[in-house]
Amino acid sequence: MTWSHALKETARTGLAIERTRMEPLVALRGACGVAIVIGMALWLGSPTLAVSAAFGAFSAGVATFQRSWRPRPWLALAAAAGLAVSTFLGYLAATHTLTFVLMLAVWTLMTGMSWAVGPVSGLVSTQMVAVMLITVTLPTSTLGALGHALLVGLGGVVQATLIVLFPVRPWGVQRDALADALAAVADYARKLRYEPMAHFDPKPLMEARSAAALTPRQARRRPRQLRGYRLLAERIRPVLASLADPVVGAPEEGPERDRVRELLAATGTVLDAVAHAIRHGRPVRVPSEAMSVLRVPEDGPKLNGAARRAALRLLSLVADVVEASDEPVEEVSAEGRTVHRFLPRPGMTGAVAMALRAIRREARWSSPVLRHAVRLCAVSVSGYLLSTALPLGHAYWAPLTSTMVLRPDFAQTYSRGVARFLGTLAGVLVGGGVVALVDPGSYLSAGLAVVCVLAMYLLMRTGFIVTSACVSAYVVFLLSIAGAAWGQTVQARVALTLLGGVLAMVAYAVFPAWETPRLRDRLADWLTANGAFATAIFDAYARPADRRPRQVRDALLDARAARSAWEQSEAQAHREPVRHRGLSQRAARAAQTALSTMARVVMLLEAHVPERDAAPSEAAGDFAEALRQALPPAAEAVRQRRPPDWEAVHQSLTRWQQRAGDRPGVALRDAEQLVLALDDLTEALTRSGRQSRTPRGPSQGESP
């Protein structure tokens, strides 16, 4: 993609306004928290204290809107506590330009590294720096700085208290995640009726797993409807694919295929009913017509072979889903006591240790997170120094804009830069115009600020340009409480917003962290993860008595994570103005198709894993060992732009075919499909290698 095309696409993305589901009660609760804090500060204190307290409540409210599985009150308290500390240190350092610049450099460097922990941590940390840059401009003493910091923390306490006193859809995020996972499997079942090779996006299942991670205290309070369904959905998905597959399931046409379509449609209906009940907290109501289909017909089974086994397994799993709607799914241990299973989430100490490990992993020069932290530090400091040298005042506005705009990837940085400037322009003009025409007092300005906060909370997920406009107007009204001049607000802030946005964009172009050169590494990681999943399944066929479900489960989760990382990198690389370095877009798509096919084949095998008392398969063990030995050099070949070698795997497959004769079985047929997928991967990478060695002139989209 050329630079001109990339800039057009990012600008179009930044200006896009999406229609999304709003949460008016949650937005109203957050705006009430801001209103309570401002009102108390104006009544008992001064306008400057009201501004500090309002920013604390505002930031705490923003933190609670982030997609996190942590309890919302704790998010509000954590955001307000971090902002209070940041504000107090900023006040102490703001007396001298040099000390403030040093403090800003350290703080922004730490903020950039917080993206290693996760997007929620990165966004909340960014918000802390942005608000700190505004609040430290309010005049006060050292003792007053401590009072400002305490009021900022008070804003978080108020927001957390409101969440506890007026809960809106408790466990709503977890309910939505689990319902989305069940609905995704239901949609998959319906697609398989006429597309037996339909693609399934595992992201909803990954989100549901993340939402199911709980602390012991949360597990005791978790609603009954959130127990058991996720694992059932995980088990149903490969059975559906196996049932619909024309190679190992029913034939493409005929009475058996008609029966399969009936089973798939009924399964989708049942899962949709369960998803609707979980999302809205209501009893499950399953149509009787669907349940009648999901029973063995009175005249006997209509399917044969592997399709019949898959259908019986599906009937059993759907029955478990229906039973789980009446009673929680439990596991009875050998001692006879009931154990409720849940995914453990680390407590505060464990979360801090995990965060430190994540930051340590990203502390390398090739890491996009470290490069983002360095960019953010350099741009914030240079923006503050340039703004101080200009005769505009409000020196904080340029680094504030850079902090809010800069992200670890190219597309978000440039799209947010355009949206931030135009949104700020609109918000400052509207807010400044209202202040100039009405000349509101402190209480009216506070009321207008609360209205802007309500609008921002309500429209937060519609687009960054809308959010920027609401926040800019909020800041104008809030600072007018302390007597800021509206004319200076309009002129200086628009100019400095443009300066901060330009600095952020230039910084990314000069010091980029492109995803395009890392595509081969992501592809190799995905190949390795898929291979580990495949060998775990074939080992289960080779030694059924020794199979370990936990090993298969962990390999599946690793394969999903590797696929998600590849898709995220590929999507980012597609929007970058960089010529491919060894992996063209066509080759990337072909390689993705090959590895997706490989993952699907292994998933089909998972649906037919033999019981522990089944006969072992020496040929499956030989194939698993050949694949295990071939994977490390193959992954290294992918990284080094060489075609992987699967000769040993081919030889093992040939030996297996000779042993099986004319009775191949499900495992052998899937092994053949897996080898074909590996050959497709080799062909895609070989074609890409030939294209990358073709002499070409300089490209307009070449990396700077």
Automatic annotation (TrEMBL):
Residues 384-506 form the Integral membrane bound transporter domain. Residues 81-197 form the Integral membrane protein YccS N-terminal domain. It is a multi-pass membrane protein. The chain crosses the membrane at residues 26-43, 74-94, 100-117, 149-168, 373-397, 417-438, 443-460, 466-487, 494-511. Its main location: membrane. It comes from the Bacteria. It is found in: Membrane. Keywords: Membrane, Transmembrane, Transmembrane helix. This is Uncharacterized protein. It comes from Streptomyces violaceusniger.
